[in-house]
Amino acid sequence: xxxxxxxxxxxxxxxxxxxxxxxxxxxxxxxxxxxxxxxxxxxxxxxxxxxxxxxxxxxxxxxxxxxxxxxxxxxxxxxxxxxxxxxxxxxxxxxxxxxxxxxxxxxxxxxxxxxxxxxxxxxxxxxxxxxxxxxxxxxxxxxxxxxxxxxxxxxxxxxxxxxxxxxxxxxxxxxxxxxxxxxxxxxxxxxxxxxxxxxxxxxxxxxxxxxxxxxxxxxxxxxxxxxxxxxxxxxxxxxxxxxxxxxxxxxxxxxxxxxxxxxxxxxxxxxxxxxxxxxxxxxxxxxxxxxxxxxxxxxxxxxxxxxxxxxxxxxxxxxxxxxxxxxxxxxxxxxxxxxxxxxxxxxxxxxxxxxxxxxxxxxxxxxxxxxxxxxxxxxxxxxxxxxxxxxxxxxxxxxxxxxxxxxxxxxxxxxxx
Length: 417
Ligand SMILES: NC(=O)c1ccc[n+]([C@@H]2O[C@H](COP(=O)([O-])OP(=O)(O)OC[C@H]3O[C@@H](n4cnc5c(N)ncnc54)[C@H](OP(=O)(O)O)[C@@H]3O)[C@@H](O)[C@H]2O)c1
What we know:
Blueprint (H helix, E strand, L loop, with lengths): L7 E6 L4 H14 L7 E5 L2 H10 L9 E3 L5 H10 E6 L4 H4 L1 H9 L3 E4 L4 H18 L2 E3 L7 H18 L5 E10 L4 H16 L1 H8 L22 E3 L4 E4 L4 H14 L9 E9 L3 H20 L2 H8 L11 H6 L1 E8 L9 E7 L3 H19 L7 E3 L1 H4 L1 H11 L2 E6 L7
Parallel strand pairs: 1-2, 1-4, 2-3, 4-5, 5-6, 6-13, 7-10
Antiparallel strand pairs: 7-11, 8-9, 9-10, 11-12, 12-14
Helix pairs in contact: 1-14, 3-5, 5-6, 7-10, 8-9, 14-16
Bound molecules: NADP nicotinamide-adenine-dinucleotide phosphate (NAP).
The site of NADP nicotinamide-adenine-dinucleotide phosphate has 35 residues, from α1, α4, α8 and α14.
């Protein structure tokens, strides 16, 4: 089926969930129910979807509803045939997402999601890459806070390095510096499922530990080492750093982007991501506390009885931060790109988002990624892409113009803490 014969540009799959509803709210505000973008609410439960539509107000009354189930291949085939892009928030993806990816690949349908499940992405790439290249389906995982800021941040700071100095940086660092927000039940469920799978399956552990775990076959080595698990001092930012909870996902995505883009900074390019906690003594103490907290969460999450006990105190699927928390929220990531020869010519960059990272800002980023795949003239032709390799500049422009994300260059590393 050609793109012009498809009924919809975008279907928001999982619109009855916490994040899916936010994506729908954003699309409605941006394009109305029947403007230049034809879009629909999708999911498995008509009553819930009708309630979501009613909750969106009178402007949403004409929004179509597409029904299906993540387990029912016939309904997924019909969904994939009817739309140019499936924008899915149905997770944990490793549990509910594989058949949808297969359907999109088979029907040449573009796809974007919010997964951070590295082992599942690896499985999808290994299973479907060749067919996606043949059908032209562009499958883009990690279109939320993980990993758009990291992936586009590297793209931005490298473009600026080339523009100013005519060279690419051989080493980019990203530092999460400041954010405010909360977790939803769906995200907690995805994190716990990942810990559960890695606890019982050594192959999953191997993929998650491999710094090049998402790179294409034959291109899975380089100078970057395993993720750091301890506090470390950072000279460039003059502060202490702690391991960053999203780094295990973002670093893999950035390295896959480099490979898909043909190693624009050379095969020795290095990328490091951490959380900046600031100068001593508080910077060190904070970094030590974060490191211990992450180790405790990972330890407890991989032991079944402790995981079940923790689940009782965490938000249920469908629950998440309040509107007020989302609107008061924000995030900031800073980048340092080293110059290959001259220490004085290193560049500092900063990306900021105007809502909480996990939901308010993520919903806008995911919606813009879906619109970018549906509407923009992109070079990517089919296969498992990353945000930077498939949408790069076009997506950055959309985020700046519509989604409250700013990209800027700093003259120096402003202190944190
Ligand atoms: N990367 C990021 O930055 C980021 C940020 C936010 C969320 N996420 C991820 O996004 C996912 C969703 O999070 P959430 O908080 O929105 O979760 P949620 O509120 O639990 O929503 C899950 C959605 O999936 C639907 N669903 C579940 N099983 C299904 C099936 N078999 N067929 C069709 N639909 C099914 C649910 O439908 P019903 O309503 O009918 O049950 C619901 O619409 C999670 O994996 C989370 O980790 C990532």
